[in-house]
Automatic annotation (TrEMBL):
One GO biological process term: regulation of DNA-templated transcription
One Pfam family of this chain: GerE
SUPFAM superfamilies: CheY-like
Gene Ontology molecular function terms on file: DNA binding
Residue(s) carrying 4-aspartylphosphate: 50
Domain annotation HTH luxR-type: ranges: 142-212
SMART domains in the record: HTH_LUXR, REC
InterPro entries for this protein: CheY-like_superfamily, NreC/VraR/RcsB-like_REC, Sig_transdc_resp-reg_receiver, Tscrpt_reg_LuxR_C, WalR-like
PANTHER family associated with the record: TRANSCRIPTIONAL REGULATORY PROTEIN NARL-RELATED, TWO-COMPONENT RESPONSE REGULATOR
Boundaries of every Response regulatory domain copy: 1-120
Stated name of the protein: Putative transcriptional regulatory protein DegU
Keywords of this entry: DNA-binding, Phosphoprotein, Transcription, Transcription regulation
Amino acid sequence: MILAEDSTLLREGLVRLLAEEGHEVLAAVGNAQLLLKAVAEDPPDVVIADVRMPPTHSDEGLRAALEIRERWPEVGVLVLSQYVEKRYATELLTGDSEGVGYLLKDRVVQVDEFLDALERVARGRAAFDPEVVRQLLGRTTHTDLLGRLSARERDVLAEMAQGHTNAAIAQRLHISQSGVEKHINAIFDKLELAGGEGYSRRVLAVLRYLGS
């Protein structure tokens, strides 16, 4: 993997953590230009990138992440952000969500959750911070349709949007897997979303809906 983070302390800490967990860090860089150069030279399985990097500390990391998704679609991208930046999250998450993640930096200190998200992205799945999903759910313009959902269906939708599998949702919400499947079918019916085969396309449809 390749890591892009302008904070030397955080960057070196992540390198040590990832190495201890058995991940190979091909490069650790401090700006978006160096990130793109490193990916071009040796495309990794996954990239970890901060949203805000030099020189302007605005959206250089996000722009690099979007470029990586366009030029090297096989490379997973896990974006880290200090805050929930809805515009950036929506721009990233309403594209092709295969191998895409968006986490708040606070989540990094919860090592198990961070590593789980990283591994999901590396395997071509989605990993979205629960707080990001909560705020996107809160800002959707389709409140009339969301109002059709039961409290449990909203819980399942939030877990699904984070990128969890049906089995993981069942475990996290303490319900059966068949119950999860019934809730998901009800969600798609109530939100008037066209069905599609494959987990990633299901998540993509939900996120496009929530981000609109």
